[in-house]
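I hope you will forgive my troubling you with a question about protein structure. The record follows directly beneath this note:
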Amino acid sequence: MACLVSRDTYERWLVQLTDLPSVSGKEDAVITWVTRWVRRRRDLTLARDRSGNLYITQNRQLRSAPIWLTAHMDHPGFVASSVDGNTVAWEFRGGVRDEYYSGAVIEWLDRTEVVGRSRIDQFRRTDAGISGTSKRLRGSTVPSVGAIGRWHFAPSRLGISRGRLRANACDDLAGVAAALAVLDQSRVRDELSDVGVILTRAEEMGFVGAIGAAKGARIPARSRLVCIEMSRASADAPMGAGPVIRVGDASSVFSPGLTNALAMLAAQMGQTDGFASQRKLMTGGSCEATAFVAYGHIAACVCLPLSNYHNMGELDEVERRRVPAQVAPEEISLADWHGMVDFLVEALARLDEGEALIRAKLDRQFEATRAIL
């Protein structure tokens, strides 16, 4: 049974996935990539639910409380709604501030190939979302209706350099790559036989794929879900300081027992192995753990601090009105990403131990000081 643990291999998956075009409801390129990845591994099985979410499981005996890593396959982007001569009308699926649209260039893709570019000339925000029009650039082909569009970046701005990945879509395709890397290592460890992966759709439109999964019957009772996310970096949660045990998001806090187990294991690994991690309430957005917890599942989240969240360059400075808004590639620390993969492999193998650590600590404290009572 082959288990690819080379960091170069994992980075290749990371670069390939974060370069794929994917928009809420149009995650086909990612689904194709993942389907091929699973088919090359005969010890894995791929299934889908009615919402189109993917479930990857190992063909081994599962324990009574399986562990699922979750990540979402979409990223904010454009969908061509009509084409009239050189004018492309579009809708935008996801959350980006209004300042970033004016004059920006969209590149349109057929499957994974760029077929043309257009420049935004007008847009409007309504209760239904953002829509607008763009004009075809000279030398470009107009896209077909339904084509995916994304912000155009020169190739020189993308890729791995100086310990960072700059990509069209780290959120959350870097999470997809991390989940698959952890699963790849789980395949040859007996204590990780119950680790599976759920890849969801349309997170950027209100995590409706995750809601469908949470309400469905494919997640066994007593499952534990660890959501992998990319979350907006801040001065309090900077890039390069390690992955974040995310206590909650802008909407909710997550399951305390599972969250505490991950945090305790991260702290212990920091003391013994020098593992760098952070424990934060990341309120820059909401993630799928909120949906899973709301529907009665046990869920926690591990995330990476992300620069240029949703391709909004220098977002902090734009919000302070100090610089003009310009789109930019999303950016993560490679050390953070590898640290998250390494941590999850070890932490998932010790989750039961982690859940007991905090009680053991309190028991010791009680025995040491109970005489004062």
Summary: DSSP finds nine helices and 17 strands in the chain. The mean pLDDT is 93. Residues 200 and 210 are 6 Å apart (CA to CA). The longest strand covers residues 113-126.
